[in-house]
Amino acid sequence: MPGVWRHSPIIMIILLSLVSLDTRYAAWPRGSVRTAPKAVPSKCDRSKFKLILDVGHTADAPGARSARNIPEFDFNLRLAKRIEDKLKSEGFAQTSLLVTEGPKRPSLFKRATAINNSGADLVLSIHHDSVPDSFLEEWEFEGTKSHFSDRFSGYSLFVSHDNPKFWTSLRFARLLGNRMKAQGLQYARQYALALMGRYRRKLLDKKVGVYRYDQLVVLMRTRVPAVLLEAGSIINRDEELAMASTERQDMIGAAVVGAVKEFCASR
Ligand SMILES: [Zn+2]
User: Fold this and answer.
1) Model confidence at 120: pLDDT above 90
2) CA of 64 to the centre of ligand 1 (A)
3) Which residues does 100 contact at the CB level (< 8 Å), separation at least 6?
4) What CATH topology corresponds to 51-265?
5) Domain limits of the chain?
6) Which residues have their alpha-adjacent CB atom under 5 A from ion ligand 1?
7) pLDDT tens readout for residues 45-73
8) What is the mean pLDDT of residues 236-265?
9) How far is the CA of 229 from the centre of ligand 1 (A)?
10) Rg, C-alpha atoms of the chain
11) Distance 57 CA to ligand 1 centre (A)
12) What does the alpha-carbon distance between residue 106 and residue 98 come to, in Å, rounded to a whole number?
């Protein structure tokens, strides 16, 4: 029906734009080798990069208890401070610690609000690991009945799919996992096992130990890239001693600094 073409300017416009598209593709050199992009100077301005180190738990609700009865919060605070010092000495002047107070649940929402109002580029939440109660064994430490489990050890990294910056969070988690591995540290494998029951998580990166944990408030409620690091197990008697040492804290600090540098440069 040729009459349709004659009387339809819209169809003519579509046809003309198809022709011009075709011409543009014809001009594209097929199979040509693209030259490598010129080196772009790093966009990372360390003095402006805003990193929050979230100290897990509070003095009132201190999280896990170590094999030698030291609260997890003490370990978290000490390690976070050491990482903060290292980052600042490397020029990341806007690194800050987020220490919250009060009972567990409200403190979680308080920290998410503080993070969202901060304009941060990245959040790393610092924790130390334990085991489900059913794995605990008894021993006596300095005359006090205490609990331990030497069954598992290692660090682990968690990201939440409910964080709107999930992919960026995962990218940073992988960078950090790579650096932890390069320090000779092993990740905790048990989270992928059925024996963990409701604590079982999906392993997203089996080379460097990144797990998916959607419901963690500090990850799911924040609108900036956020990763939670379980730096090591303090219910494991040997690893507790390692985590208390400045050597181990410096290894983890070096891993974080390396990963933050890479993350900042690659944004
Ligand atoms: Zn914790």
Assistant:
1) yes
2) 6
3) 55, 58, 107, 110, 111, 114
4) Aminopeptidase (3.40.630)
5) 51-265
6) 56, 63, 127
7) 999 999 999 999 999 999 999 999 999 99
8) 98
9) 9
10) 25
11) 6
12) 15
